[in-house]
Each structure stands twice: as structure tokens, then as C-alpha cells.
């Protein structure tokens, strides 16, 4: 099953904002959650991951991300604010869509 993602700029502002919707390529267990947190930490943006039921997790917290208990095929929303929001959301959405494996 291929993962798909759709990113859209959520609006302009001093800080910048971005949002992407992504279908998980694999279950969001400890290893991909840790990769997500590491990736998010590399950007100047505050990111949240939102589950279909509205639960949110700050991308800086492995425990919060794990708490979403998201399974492969689940559609998640990634939202970010900050100077690097567009790049950060794109990177995190890419990791989620690829099942937590770094491309490269």
C-alpha cells in the first residue's frame, strides 16, 4: 500500500504556518515515533500531530506521539507554526508516510 500526503500552506504570518495530511505507511510505534521527534527537533517550529478523533500530540514528545496509538492506514494531520514550519511539516509528514524510515 502506498502512502499519500497532501500539504498545503495554512496561511501567512510572522511565524509562518503549515499543515499536511498524511496516511501512515506503518504503525506508529516507538522507533518511528522517536524518528519523528528527532526530525521535528531539527527545525524552528512547534509541531502537533492530530489523530482523526481529535487527540493531539506535540511532536517534541515521544510519549505523546505514542499515545496516539496510530496504526498503518490512519490519516493524521501535522500542523506547525514557526519560521521553519513549512519545512518541518514536510519532513515529519514524509517520515510518517514512509512508515518512519528516513528517505535518502
Automatic annotation (TrEMBL):
Keyword Transport belongs to the record: yes
Domain of life: Bacteria
Alphabetical list of Pfam families matching this protein: PTS-HPr (PF00381)
Segments forming domain HPr: 15-104
Leader sequence segment: none
The keyword Acetylation belongs to this UniProt entry's keyword annotation: no
Biological role stated in the UniProt entry: General (non sugar-specific) component of the phosphoenolpyruvate-dependent sugar phosphotransferase system (sugar PTS). This major carbohydrate active-transport system catalyzes the phosphorylation of incoming sugar substrates concomitantly with their translocation across the cell membrane. The phosphoryl group from phosphoenolpyruvate (PEP) is transferred to the phosphoryl carrier protein HPr by enzyme I. Phospho-HPr then transfers it to the PTS EIIA domain.
InterPro entries listed in its UniProt record: HPr, HPr-like, HPr-like_sf
Protein name as it appears in the record: Phosphocarrier protein HPr
Keyword terms, alphabetized: Sugar transport, Transport
